[in-house]
Write a structure and sequence with these properties.
With about 160 residues, this protein is mainly alpha-helical. Helices cover about 45% and strands about 5% of the residues. The protein is built from five helices and two strands; from the N terminus they run αββαααα. Helix 2 (about 85-105) crosses helix 5 (about 135-155) and helix 4 packs across helix 5.
Length: about 160
């Protein structure tokens, strides 16, 4: 933790981050094409690279770029912060993150921001550990994901 960003009780506001532009088109194509046929790191769904196609929720298995630490929380486009997930997991994570930010009026305490970033890393790299250490964040994600998946079945 950077001392200059934390007050004595660790309840300071989020620092203002300049928006990081999305990864370049070439970089996206490289990452997504490498993911074609691989399993999503979160749910093990077989991902599909949909070269040049625009899609929405109707393609839950589409490979999508995921910022592990979201750009909203200061995440970068560095290789260590980018991964590929299925569209369904990426959308569920984004919706859960937005609900969390809205709950905190886009101003969560620093210590909760740190926990969320750690959870998001675990959500991709070790889902069982994420569930164990952050049951509320994990439940929010899986509830959102399951809700979205069941809506897709109905459509």
């Amino acid at each position: 933790i950077r001392d200059d960003l934390v007050t004595g009780v660790q309840t300071c506001a989020l620092p203002i981050f300049k928006s990081v532009p999305p990864p370049s088109r070439t970089r996206k194509v490289t990452l997504l094409s490498r993911a074609d046929g691989r399993k999503c790191p979160t749910c093990s769904r077989k991902m599909e690279y949909l070269a040049g196609q625009k899609f929405g929720h109707e393609r839950p298995n589409a490979a999508t770029i995921e910022h592990i630490c979201p750009r909203k929380l200061g995440g970068s486009n560095e290789d260590s912060n980018l991964t590929v997930r299925c569209n369904l997991c990426n959308r569920a994570s984004g919706h859960s993150m937005n609900e969390w930010l809205q709950y905190h009026k886009h101003n969560p305490p620093w210590c909760e921001k740190e926990q969320m970033i750690e959870y998001l890393w675990m959500e991709i790299h070790d889902t069982s550990k994420a569930q164990e250490l952050y049951p509320e964040f994990s439940a929010s994600f899986w509830n959102k994901r399951n809700s979205m998946a069941s809506q897709e079945v109905k459509e």
